[in-house]
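From the shared-data thread, chain only:
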Amino acid sequence: MRIGVTIWNGRVSPVFDVSRHLAIYETSNREIVRQEELTLPEDAIAKVRSLTGQTVDIVICGAVSGWIGEAIESSGIKLFPFIAGQAGQVVEAFLRGEIRDPSWSMPGCCGRNLRQGRPGCRIAQGKKEEK
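Structure, as C-alpha cells:
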C-alpha cells in the first residue's frame, strides 16, 4: 500500500490546498518499508493528478477544501483529512488502525480539546459529512 501524507517541517501539513510537499510511505504487512518525498504542483487539480500518477492508495492530510477532497476520492484514493502530528507517527497510527482516534485530529476538530468540532467532521465519527 502507498500512503501519501502532505508534509511541512516533518509534520502533516495543516492545509492540503496549499501544501507543496508529499511524503509517500510504501508499506507491507503493516510496516513502513520505504519512504520518499516529492514536490507537489501548486494547482489543486494537478496535485490530485500527481497523487494518482504516484499510485497513492491513501492520502492523509490536514484541512482540505470540499471540492478537492471530492476530487481525491473520485480518483479512487481514500482520504483521511483533518489529521495532525508528526508524519511518520501518523502513518504508524494508521497502520495500527488508530488514525480515527481524536488524538490525531487537528486542534479544535472532532472533540479534541473538549470541543464539539465543526459540523460534519468525519474523523472521530468515521463517516462522511452529512448534508
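The chain has three helices and six strands.
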